[in-house]
Design a protein that fits this description.
With 164 residues, this protein is α+β, with helices and mostly antiparallel strands. The chain has one helix at residues 2-65; strands at 72-77, 80-89, 92-101, 104-111, 122-126, 129-134, 139-145, 151-157.
């Protein structure tokens, strides 16, 4: 009879607590691994959306700085859609040309008389696509898609004939 009590005492006194500790350790490990994957996924998604937000803010800033009558228009240069922003100075007329080339939003700042050349531009941000449009009521729209598929839309009211 004492042998049975010793066995149940060993099970209750040693093996049961050890089993609970091992179960807790295993649960903690699974939770840490799963949590790490979720955190990485959230970070990648956040970084992707952050990239399109930067691009949208860049476009809004450029348009705000130069929002004058007939100073902003869209052109097609050799199959590339180009947002052109004109700046008149005492030294001459200059253009900021914004376009997408090989997965990059690009900008070139050059004299109005200089022909469009991709080589003159500097990269602004990585994008999958960025399309521009100006509606009849002078509303500028840009639709930006990041390399991983995050989408952002920019709307900006352009000055028309001295009024907005």
């Amino acid at each position: 009879m004492q042998k049975k009590q010793k066995r149940s005492g060993i099970i209750a006194g040693v093996l049961l607590p050890m089993g609970i500790i091992c179960l807790f350790a295993l649960g903690s490990l699974v939770l840490a691994l799963y949590g790490g994957r979720v955190y990485k996924s959230i970070q990648l998604c956040g970084a992707d959306e952050f990239e399109t937000t930067i691009t949208a803010n860049y476009l809004r800033t450029k348009l705000s700085q130069n929002n004058k009558v007939d100073a902003i228009w869209l052109a097609n240069q050799g199959g590339t859609q180009v947002l052109t922003i004109e700046l008149k100075t005492d030294e001459g007329v200059y253009e900021t040309r914004i376009f997408v080339h090989q997965g990059q939003l690009m900008e070139s700042f050059t004299s109005q008389s200089k022909a469009f050349a991709v080589e003159d531009a500097v990269p602004i941000s990585a994008v999958q696509s960025c399309t521009f449009s100006i509606l009849d009521d002078n509303l500028f729209l840009a639709e930006i898609t990041s390399p991983n598929g995050a989408f952002t839309r920019v709307a900006f009211a352009l000055v028309q004939g001295g009024s907005v």
